[in-house]
Structures are given as structure tokens and as C-alpha cells.
Automatic annotation (TrEMBL), chain A:
Taxonomy of the source species: Eukaryota, Fungi, Dikarya, Ascomycota, Saccharomycotina
Polar residues: bias regions: 469-484
Positions of region (Disordered): 1-63, 469-518
Protein's name according to its UniProt entry: Vacuolar protein sorting-associated protein 17
Biased composition (Basic and acidic residues): 53-63, 485-516
Keywords: Protein transport, Transport
Function in brief: Component of the membrane-associated retromer complex which is essential in endosome-to-Golgi retrograde transport.
Residue ranges annotated for the Sorting nexin/Vps5-like C-terminal domain, each copy included: 244-419
Organism name: Suhomyces tanzawaensis NRRL Y-17324
Molecular function via GO: phosphatidylinositol-3-phosphate binding; protein transporter activity
Automatic annotation (TrEMBL), chain B:
Name listed for the protein in its UniProt record: Vps5-domain-containing protein
Gene3D superfamilies given in the database record: Arfaptin homology (AH) domain/BAR domain, Phox-like domain
Localization of this protein: Cytoplasm; Golgi apparatus; Membrane
Bias kind Polar residues: ranges: 160-169
Gene Ontology terms: cellular component: cytosol; endosome; Golgi apparatus; retromer complex
Length: 530, 678
């Protein structure tokens, strides 16, 4: 415990308490419970001053709590500064460590020397280090974790690139929309450095306990939390984290089983082929077995693709969420630790105060002792104040960030399930199409026309009821005219004019015939997945 | 009428007219018979009855009229098919399999045209021959009118005959027996018929192997009407052949005690049309004797049955699995050469009372009984009848077993073990098990040849068939194993889907956000339904494809048994024959050398006589069995095509439905959760 007491507020506030200045300013108008805020270590950060007037201006019109929030979290109430990062390309590098190339546009942020930066190149590992730094130095934020450089898709494939591009873009978007993170000093270095970036503020140690101490501290009961939302948030996130882990394992198992199933269906197709080769007596039967073998093979291929897709979409998505949730959980733990520190500081102040009064009440006053007692009281008070301030700020930030995390989670789930649903619909539609294609082949095995005849003797036409059930105007089995894949396609076409041709071809392929050609399948499956 | 042609298999010509004819005559009233055959037949029959006195010309006209009617239909159907193909071509233009199809198609259409012409001429000829016989016999039963039709085929038959001739004549003795009592003309007719039978049976060999046969087959895939017509025409006489025999058979040969597989049913209406339901499996007995008893409810749709008592109420008896095996073996003994529909395989002690297993077994048993009842010879078998109606089965079965000397219950164990071997390899998933039956098959063969190396198979047909059956078994076994593996894999998947759904539900219950929870629980529901869907399709596949394959594997077991029986008979014949030759030589020598020793000579002569008799008996038995097997195997092929086609069709259709359901589930999920707007 004592190790966390010598908390150096100066150092911390230098970078992370941009509101320190505004507090000083706003202190006069506010009658806050923590009226000692004015004594907070003064380490004004330049950029905050820019917002301070604004927050001050508005402060008069807003209620007290809101004012307090504004005072505590000024960066939340400004739109002046922004940072945009656009990931433009992922360059190939050593495996697992690609180079991310991006452009940045800076607006209203201090210390940046330019407003636009082009072609910034950072390796993935550098970004990961930067990410780690952000997590350590921004205790009040739920820092998103950058998704892994490897996906469940075959490495180096088109799908992997697409997926990485998407998830990293998403990560950058989350990072730059977080007002706390973009005000981090390190961001300047991250953007402005040449190729070969390393974290500059490296020497900063984690401000909270880590390792074994942290583990021990976690065992203690949770300190009282005045914000119920945050108090319940941690258990929620924790169980979500655990369930997601379970789900991820299941997803993996599911995909593996599907893969095996696909292999077995392939085996079936082989058996059918040998059966058909052996069936020399009856050409109709031979044809039937051949067709069935072909269908099974297609089905096996599709299933394999589907298993990869499912793991790529749902498995990886869930993995990202797991990492995110873990980080959120840790951030909440950090808050608890700091809260406990605050409690300790309060206790210490109290004891110091007692000590001081004791000395005061003594008949013989030793000026030296008095001085020391007062000094130590002052010091512990200072520490307590800064901790209190920090806790308040963290709580305020987290209340906002919590909502952001939840929204993001929801959005993420929606996106994942949407993309999964589309894939699956596509998958099943393809199989259905193929199955419907061979119906006639089975009916014509002999003249009886199969079971479809339903005992109707006068049915000359073998081809009755062979309609493809997925016509252009809706599915035959339901009244719905809407079709998920189609709408999706149209949207894509609209948004990407240049790829219209391609999309159209795809569209046709979907309506007309088999889409899984060998090349397609091969590129999707990569080399050594089975 | 024209459509009816469609329903009949046009593969008849490929398999063998002979088989179909036997099939037909035996079954004319049973479900198994292709309806059209009967219909066609009846129609013709009615027409003929009306104009019984009419002359040939009219018949000819009528026949040609049929032909005329047939032609357009055929063309039409060919057109249909062409159209279908074209559509498919357009649809799948870029697929490579189309190329194959295309070529196939052109081949088909060409063949069809040629065949049309051919058929037209031949079918006109056929009816011509009908009338003479009609006037000749003047039997009231209409079918007989067709009797002499074989004459048209005669030429063909003789051509294909060649190698078979000897055998065909060997089979003659029996017919001669009767012929003494019948008019010479009739004898001639019968002879013709006899000849006809053999080539018909041996037909499959010839045309099958020849290129012509192949191309014909191809062409007939689609334009089958003609071929069908031809086959029917050609078959018609054979079809009723046994009926003619009937009156003459005042003293049927008592060679095989009860087995006269080729003997016809008394009359058409004597055949039972049984409705057999196996139901209510019930566990009875205490711990040591616990077993399942099935109720067999038999209803005869035939109003004047011969072998079954007429009862207004369906007869219900209780039988256990063991009894089914008994009747199976009893029938095997009673009808050598017949492929008896086998009962399901024996199950290990554990899991006997598993619900699924019992239901599966019940279904198999029901199928077995209905299949048996579909074969008139078998359905009228006294043992079978006893099995269906006897109240005191245990004693009666013992009595019958003793009477027939079949020792069915003893033999039971024998083939039971065999079956068990098959079962284990059947259900076992290891490859070593897979090869077991083949090895054992080989072992059987080698052991057979090592016992009497001199015995060589006299008929190529059987060598080929044996090989065919072995290969078929091997392939089906692999097929079955693949399906079974898929089944277990799917079961795993079902379990995982279930768990996923549970986990999703848990996650939803956390209420991270209300909307998220809704989304997740909806997705969980989708997973659950998918699981059910998968479960259903899995069960369906097992019940259609899996069940059919398993059944055919068992039937193959029956076929193998039949082959074995035949080989045994042949072996006996062979040894006797060998003896006979030896003794004959001895006798010759003796008579030449020592003409004095009359006693010895007489003794030898007596022995030779006896051996001759024995040899004749066995030869006849052997020939009968061979013929029976041939027709039975042909029937088997016939049934195989239909059964597999049907189960594959169900398989495909159910797969289609399951895909539709899956699509629908996802589409609904997509729509309800407004994912389009994400």
C-alpha cells in the first residue's frame, strides 16, 4: 500500500490534468464540497487554456452539477480541437508486423507543428507500444485495444487485409474521438516522428500497482463507490468478459467441427464418385450418383468457406471485444485502487491532523516539531486533494466513457451479426440453388418420375414443380420481397461507383449460377488451412 | 395409358425381360407390381374379351393404334426433355458439367429417334403373334392370349442363347414330364417358352456388355416410353407363362420338398395382398428374459385368399425379434435361390431398449414383412402364414422346423454370427473393420476352392454377379460409413450450437444494453432453431439414405447366402457327377471285360442308376436355383434403383427444405433486428 502513497501529483497532472487551470479559474464561482481544489498542483497544460474561457462562458448558464462536470472534464465540452487519422494502406512487412500507413489532420490541438500529416508509417508493433502507453498514462479513459495483426482468415489473403483494414480503422477512429487521448503528449510524437517511432515518455511507470501487489490488492473488498453505475459496471463487464471468452472458445470449436464436417462431406462425395464409377449397369443411377457427388463436393467447399468466414467474423470480433472488455475491467480496477489510495490518504491526513493538534495542545511547544507536523499535514492534505480530484475526474470521465463503450459494443455486435447473417444467407442460398439444380437429374433416373409424381398417373411432364425457389422477385416459400443480400448489394453499388461493374457481376453470379469457382475458393482458403 | 408407360421402368430391357416377367406374374396383384403393367394389361384384356372372336387384323389395328398413340407422346416427352435440357443449358452455360450433359443429350436424342423407328416396327409385330395362341388354347383367362408372343423374341433369344443352350435343354426334363400329358402343340409352345426363359434371363449379360446396350441405355434414360412399350410387349407372354403351366402340373416334381420357387401361384387372385403393420413394441419378461415384443397386425385385402383364413378383423399376433429371424431362415430354407428380405441386424445386449433403436428396428421389421408379403411365393408360404396368424408360435415353429428338417433355429446361430460380423464392421468406423467383410468373403471363396479345387463355376454370370455384389457391398459400406460419420459430426455440431445458444442467452441476460440484449437473444434463438433444423435433417438423412443403405447391405447378405446355397448344391452335384463318371467307366470296363459276372455288373449298374438319379436331382435343383437366383438378382437390381432413387430424392428434398428454413431464419433475424440500417 505504501508504495502507492508517494504519488507524484506534479508528474501526473502535467500531462493529464488539463483542467487544473480551469479549476483555479472556476473555483471562485463554485461552492464545491472539495473547496481545497484551488490548492491542486498547478501544472497547467497549455492547450487547456484555450478551452477554459469557453467552458467558463457557458458555465454561467448551466446547472451546478453540469458546471462541475465541465470544470472537471473540460475536454468533453468542446468541439474546437479534433484529430483525424485515416488509415490508407497496410504494407507488407515481416509476418505479424505489417506497416500501417495513414494520414492525419490536426485541428486545434497544441504542440503539433503542422495541420496535416501525410503518409505516416508505423509498424504494427510500434502502434501496439503506443497503445500500451496510452493505457498506462490515461487512467480515466477506457482505452481501446488495437486488434491483433493476425486474423482467422488465411494469412496474407485478401480477406485478412480487408478485415485488418476495417478493424484498425475502427480502432483509430475510437482513439481519435476520445478527447482525453488526443491531448496526450505522446500523440504529438506518434504523429510527428519519422519512421522508427518509439514511445518517448517511456520512463513513466504505471501509476497504479501492478503484478503481485495488484493481485493482492484486488482481493480486498471494493471501496465504497458513490457512483452506482460504475459500481455495477465492473461486475457486468467482468461476466461479459468471461462469457465472451466461453463464446469465443465455442466459436472456435464450432468452426473446427464444421471444418471436419466439410472434410467428411468431401469424403462422402468421394465415396459417391466411386459408387457411380462402379454403377455401370444403369446410366441413370450413375448420373444420379455423380450429380450427388458433385453437390456434396460443392457443399463441402461451401461449408469450409463458411467455417472460415464464421470464425473470421464472429470469432475475431468476439476476440476484439474480449480484449476491450479486459481493458475496461482493468481500468475500473485501477479506479478502485486509486479510490483506496484516497481513503488511505484521508486516513493519513486525519492522523496527521490529530498529531498536529496533539502537539498544539502540549504545554511545551517545540517549534521544530510543530513545523514538521504542519508540513506533513500540509503534504498529506495535498496528496489527498490531488487524489480526490483524480478520483472525481476519473469517475466523471468513466461515466461518459461507459456509455461510449456500451454503444460501441452494441454497434459492434450489430455489425458482427449483420455480416455473419449475410454470409450465412449467402451460404445457404448457394447450397439451395445447387440442390434445386439436380432435382431433375434424380427424377429422370427412371420413367416413374420419382416421388414427386405423388401417384399422379397422368403426369407426362417430369419437369413439374422444378421452379427455382429463389427467383428475382422474392423467395417462393415466403411472401417477403425484401432480401438482405440484395439490399446490401445495392447499397454497396451505390457507395462504390467504380466497383459497380464488379458488384453487378457478383450479383448476376448470385442469381444465375455457381459462385464458388476454384480460383475464388482457393484465394479464400489460402494454402494450408486443410 | 400413354402416361402409364412412363411409370414403368424402361430399364427393364437392360435388366432382363425374363426377370420382369416373373416379377410381374408373381406380383400381378401386389403393391410391388408397377401399376401400369397391370393397367396396361387389364386394358388390353378388356378389349380382347370384347372381341374375342375377332380376327388378327383387328388385333393388329388395335396394336398399331396403341403405337400411334404412343408415338406422339414419346415425341412430346422427348421434346419436354429437350426443352428441359436446353433450359438447364442456358442456366448453367458456363459450368463444365454442362458440356458433359450436352454431349449426353445429343447422344440421347439421337438414340431416341433411332429407337422410335425400331420400336415401331417391332411392336407392330408383337401383337400379331398374340392371336394364334389365343385361338390355340382358347383359355378364358385373358393374359394367356399373349402366350405365344415369345415367338417374336424367339429369334433374338436364340441368338443370344448360344452358350446357354445346353443349360436350357438341361432344364427341359421337367417340362417333358408334363408334356407327356399335354398336347404336342402345347409342348412345342412350352418348349419355346422354356427357351425363352433362359435367353431372357441371360440377356443382361449380353446387351449389358455390348456397346449397343450401353448406348441404348443412355438413350432410354429419357425416351423410355418406346423401350418400355417394347419391353412390355416382349414380356407379356412370359408374364403369364406360369399360368399356363398350372393346369398341366397335376403332379409337380417333388424334388425339393417345399421349394418350388419357379412354380406359380395358383391364380392371380390367390396371392395375398397383405397389409402388415408392426406396432406397439413392448418390453416383457423379467430381468433375465427381458425382450421386446412387437404386435403384428395383418389385414388381407384379397377377399378370397387361399392360404390365409378370412377374418373380418385384422389378425394380431405378438412376435419377438428372434421369431423374425426364425421366419427369415425358414424361408431361406424353403425357397433356395430366393433372396429373402432380411430382418434388421442383431443388437448388442446394451442399448436393446433404447427408444431410437427399437423404433428403427420396428420400421425394419415392418419393411421386411411387407417385402416378403409382396412376393406371392413367399407370402403364401405356410410358414410365413403360420408366422402371421399362429397363436402358439413357439410350439408350431418347433414343429415345422422338425417337419421340414430345416433346423432353422440351429442355422440361426450360424448366419446370425455371420450377420454379426457384418454388423460390427458396418457400425465400426475403423478402416480395419471395413476390410473385414472383404477378407472374409475372400476367405469364403478360397476355402471353397481349397475344399474341392476341381469345382469351377460353370456360369460366367455368377462369377460376374458375385464380383458385382462384393463390390457393391464394399461401396455401400463406405457410403454408409461416410453418412454415419457425417451424422456423428453433425451431432457434435448440434451440441456446440446448443452451447453457443446458451452462452448467448447468458450474455443477453447481462443486459449490457437493452437493445444489445434483444439482439443477442434473438440471435440465440436463431442458433437454437438452426440446431433443431440440423437435428431434424440429420435424423432425416439417417432414416432415408442411411436406412436404405443399411437395408441393402442386409439384402446383400441374403444374396450372398443364396449364392452360397447354390454353390453347395453345385458342389454336391459335382461330386455325384464325378462318382457317376467313375462308376460308369468301371461298369463299362466290367461289362467289356467280365461279361460273366452278372451279379457284380448288376450291382454296379444299380449304383450307376442311383447315382444318375441323384445327379439328375441335383442338376435339376441346381438349375432351378440358378434360374431363381438370376431372376431374383434382376429383381434386386430393379428394386435397388427405385429404392435408392426414392431415398436420394427424399434426401435432396429435405435438404432443400432445411436450407430454405435456414435462409428464412436468417432473413427474419436480419429484418426484425433492422440490421439493414446498421
Amino acid at each position: 500500500m505504501s508504495s502507492s502513497v508517494p504519488y507524484i501529483p506534479d508528474d501526473d497532472f502535467e500531462n493529464n490534468n488539463p483542467f487544473a487551470e480551469p479549476i483555479l479559474h472556476s473555483d471562485p464561482h463554485n461552492s464545491l464540497a472539495n473547496d481545497n481544489l484551488s490548492r491542486a498542483p498547478d501544472a497547467p497544460v497549455d492547450q487547456v487554456q484555450a478551452h477554459a474561457p469557453e467552458s467558463d462562458k457557458n458555465a454561467t448558464e448551466i446547472s451546478d452539477t453540469n458546471k462541475e462536470l465541465r470544470r472537471l472534464l473540460p475536454e468533453r465540452f468542446t468541439t474546437k480541437s479534433s484529430l483525424q487519422i485515416k488509415l490508407t494502406a497496410i504494407e507488407k512487412n515481416r509476418p505479424g508486423n505489417p506497416i500501417l500507413r495513414f494520414d492525419a489532420v490536426v485541428k486545434g490541438l497544441p504542440k503539433f507543428r503542422q495541420s496535416t500529416y501525410k503518409d505516416i508509417r508505423r509498424t504494427y508493433n510500434e502502434v501496439v507500444k503506443f497503445n500500451k502507453y496510452l493505457i498506462i498514462s490515461n487512467l480515466e479513459a477506457f482505452v481501446p485495444v488495437i486488434p491483433n495483426a493476425s486474423t482467422s482468415y488465411p494469412s496474407g489473403g485478401e480477406d485478412e487485409n480487408k478485415q485488418l483494414m476495417n478493424v484498425w480503422r475502427e480502432w483509430f477512429a475510437r482513439i481519435v474521438t476520445n478527447p482525453i487521448l488526443i491531448r496526450d503528449d505522446e500523440f504529438v510524437y506518434f504523429i510527428e516522428n519519422d519512421f522508427g517511432y518509439s514511445v518517448i515518455n517511456n520512463n513513466r511507470k504505471s501509476s497504479v500497482a501492478s503484478g503481485l501487489i495488484r493481485k493482492t490488492l484486488k482481493q480486498f473488498s471494493v471501496p465504497y463507490d458513490e457512483f452506482e453505475e460504475l459500481a455495477t459496471f465492473r461486475p457486468l463487464i467482468k461476466s461479459a468478459y468471461l462469457i465472451l471468452q466461453k463464446l469465443s472458445k465455442l466459436e472456435e470449436k464450432n468452426s473446427k467441427t464444421q471444418k471436419q464436417l466439410s472434410i467428411q462431406i468431401y469424403d462422402l462425395s468421394n465415396q459417391l464418385n466411386s459408387l457411380s464409377q462402379f454403377e455401370t449397369i444403369h446410366p441413370g443411377m450413375k448420373n444420379m450418383w455423380e450429380k450427388l457427388a458433385k453437390i456434396s463436393q460443392i457443399q463441402s467447399d461451401l461449408l469450409l468457406i463458411e467455417s472460415v468466414n464464421e470464425l473470421g467474423i464472429l470469432g475475431d470480433g468476439i476476440q476484439n471485444l474480449i480484449e476491450d472488455f479486459y481493458q475496461v475491467k482493468e481500468a475500473l480496477t485501477n479506479r478502485h485502487l486509486i479510490m483506496r489510495e484516497l481513503l488511505q490518504a484521508e486516513a493519513q491526513t486525519k492522523s496527521k491532523h490529530l498529531h498536529a493538534t496533539k502537539i498544539k495542545s502540549k504545554s511545551a511547544l517545540d517549534p521544530l516539531k510543530v513545523d514538521e507536523a504542519i508540513r506533513s499535514l500540509e503534504y498529506s492534505k495535498k496528496v489527498e486533494e490531488s487524489l480526490k480530484l483524480q478520483v472525481n475526474r476519473i469517475s466523471g470521465e468513466m461515466l461518459i466513457e461507459k456509455q461510449e463503450v456500451l454503444d460501441f459494443t452494441e454497434h459492434k455486435f450489430q455489425k458482427l451479426l449483420k455480416s455473419l447473417t449475410l454470409h450465412r444467407v449467402d451460404h445457404h442460398r448457394k447450397i439451395l440453388k445447387h440442390l434445386e439444380n439436380i432435382r431433375l437429374d434424380i427424377r429422370i433416373v427412371d420413367a416413374k418420375g420419382g416421388l414427386s409424381r405423388l401417384n399422379r398417373d397422368n403426369l407426362t411432364n417430369l419437369k413439374h414443380n422444378l421452379m427455382q425457389s429463389q427467383s428475382s422477385n422474392g423467395d417462393a416459400w415466403s411472401s417477403r420481397t425484401f432480401r438482405s443480400l440484395k439490399t446490401e448489394q445495392e447499397e454497396r453499388e451505390r457507395s462504390r461507383e467504380e466497383e459497380e461493374e464488379d458488384a453487378k457481376k457478383h450479383d448476376e453470379g448470385e442469381d444465375g449460377r455457381n459462385v464458388v469457382d476454384a480460383k475464388n475458393a482457393a484465394s479464400l482458403l489460402g494454402v494450408a488451412t486443410f | 395409358m400413354e402416361q402409364d408407360d412412363l411409370t414403368a421402368s424402361h430399364w427393364d430391357d437392360v435388366i432382363t425381360p425374363g426377370s420382369v416377367s416373373i416379377f410381374g406374374n408373381l406380383n400381378s396383384s401386389t403393391i410391388h407390381t408397377p401399376n401400369n403393367l397391370n393397367n396396361e394389361f387389364n386394358d388390353l384384356h378388356i378389349g380382347r374379351d370384347a372381341e374375342e372372336e375377332d380376327e388378327d387384323e383387328e388385333e393388329e389395328v388395335q396394336a398399331s393404334r396403341y403405337d400411334d398413340e404412343d408415338h406422339p407422346v414419346n415425341d412430346q416427352s422427348v421434346d419436354h426433355i429437350k426443352q428441359a435440357e436446353l433450359e438447364q443449358l442456358n442456366e448453367l452455360k458456363k459450368e463444365e458439367r454442362n458440356e458433359h450433359k450436352n454431349s449426353l443429350l445429343s447422344e440421347l436424342t439421337n438414340g431416341a429417334d433411332a429407337e422410335d423407328l425400331l420400336l415401331a416396327s417391332s411392336s407392330i409385330v408383337t401383337p400379331k403373334k398374340v392371336n394364334p395362341s389365343e385361338s390355340l388354347f382358347n383359355v378364358k383367362d385373358s393374359p394367356i392370349k399373349f402366350e405365344p408372343t415369345p415367338k417374336t423374341n424367339e429369334g433374338k433369344g436364340k441368338k443370344t442363347l448360344n452358350t446357354k443352350n445346353s443349360q436350357a435343354y438341361r432344364a427341359n426334363p421337367r417340362s417333358r414330364k408334363h408334356s407327356s400329358k399335354s398336347i404336342i402343340k402345347h409342348l412345342d409352345a412350352r418348349k419355346l417358352n422354356k427357351e425363352e426363359i433362359v435367353p431372357a434371363n441371360s440377356n443382361p449379360l449380353g446387351p449389358l456388355d455390348s456397346e449397343d446396350g450401353r448406348s441404348n441405355d443412355l438413350s432410354s434414360i429419357k425416351s423410355n416410353n418406346k423401350a418400355e412399350q417394347l419391353v412390355q410387349e416382349a414380356n407379356a407372354p412370359l408374364y403369364e407363362l406360369p399360368k399356363n403351366d398350372q393346369p398341366e402340373l397335376t403332379n409337380p416334381p417333388v424334388l425339393v420338398e417345399r421349394a418350388k420357387p419357379n412354380e406359380p401361384e395358383e391364380t392371380n387372385h390367390a396371392a395375398n395382398r397383405l397389409d402388415i403393420i408392426v406396432s406397439d413394441p413392448m418390453k416383457v419378461g423379467d430381468i433375465t428374459t427381458a425382450h421386446i415384443v412387437y404386435n403384428i397386425k395383418t389385414r388381407n385385402k384379397n377377399t378370397s385368399p387361399e392360404s390365409l383364413p378370412v377374418t373380418p378383423e385384422p389378425i394380431t399376433v405378438a412376435r419377438r425379434y428372434k421369431d423374425f429371424r426364425w421366419i427369415y431362415h425358414q424361408l431361406q430354407n424353403n425357397h433356395p435361390g430366393r433372396i429373402i428380405p432380411p430382418p434388421p441386424t442383431k443388437q448388442t445386449y446394451i442399448g436393446r431398449f433404447n427408444e431410437n433403436f427399437i423404433e428403427n428396428r420396428r420400421l425394419s421389421l415392418e419393411k421386411m414383412l411387407s417385402k416378403i408379403s409382396n412376393v406371392p411365393v413367399l407370402s403364401n408360404d405356410p410358414d410365413f402364414v403360420m408366422f402371421l396368424i399362429s397363436e402358439d408360435f413357439a410350439n408350431e415353429s418347433r414343429e415345422r422346423e422338425r417337419q421340414s428338417g430345416s433346423a432353422a433355429s440351429l442355422q440361426n446361430n450360424d448366419s446370425l454370427d455371420n450377420d454379426k460380423d457384418d454388423d460390427s464392421s458396418l457400425s465400426g468406423s475403423t478402416s480395419s473393420n471395413m476390410s473385414a467383410p472383404i477378407i472374409s468373403g475372400g476367405g469364403f471363396m478360397t476355402s471353397l476352392f481349397s475344399i474341392s479345387t476341381k469345382v469351377s463355376e460353370p456360369d460366367d454370370y455368377f462369377i460376374e454377379k458375385k464380383q458385382y455384389i462384393d463390390e457393391l457391398e464394399h461401396n455401400l459400406r463406405n457410403f454408409y460409413r461416410a453418412i454415419e460419420l457425417i451424422g456423428t459430426q453433425r451431432m457434435d455440431l448440434i451440441g456446440i450450437l446448443d452451447e453457443i445458444s446458451l452462452a448467448l442467452d447468458e450474455l443477453a441476460e447481462l443486459e449490457i444494453l437493452k437493445t444489445t440484449s434483444e439482439l443477442l437473444s434473438a440471435f440465440s434463438e436463431v442458433q437454437l432453431k438452426l440446431k433443431e433444423n440440423l437435428d431434424r435433417i440429420n435424423l432425416q438423412d439417417q432414416l432415408t439414405l442411411g436406412f436404405t443403405i443399411e437395408e441393402y447391405l442386409r439384402i446383400i447378405g441374403s444374396i450372398k447366402f443364396v449364392f452360397e446355397t447354390r454353390t453347395k448344391v453345385y458342389q454336391q452335384y459335382h461330386t455325384f457327377n464325378q462318382d457317376l463318371i467313375k462308376k460308369q467307366a468301371q461298369l463299362d470296363k466290367q461289362t467289356r471285360k467280365y461279361k460273366m459276372q452278372v451279379d457284380k455288373n448288376n450291382l454296379l449298374a444299380f449304383e450307376v442308376d442311383k447315382l444318375k438319379q441323384k445327379t439328375a436331382v441335383y442338376e435339376k435343383q441346381f438349375n432351378t436355383i440358378s434360374d431363381t437366383i438370376k431372376s431374383e438378382v434382376a429383381n434386386f437390381e430393379f428394386g435397388k434403383i427405385e429404392d435408392f432413387r426414392n431415398s436420394v430424392e427424399i434426401f435432396i428434398e429435405s435438404s432443400i427444405e432445411s436450407q430454405k428454413e435456414a435462409i428464412e431464419l436468417y432473413e427474419t433475424f436480419y429484418e426484425r433486428q433492422n440490421l439493414a440500417s446498421v
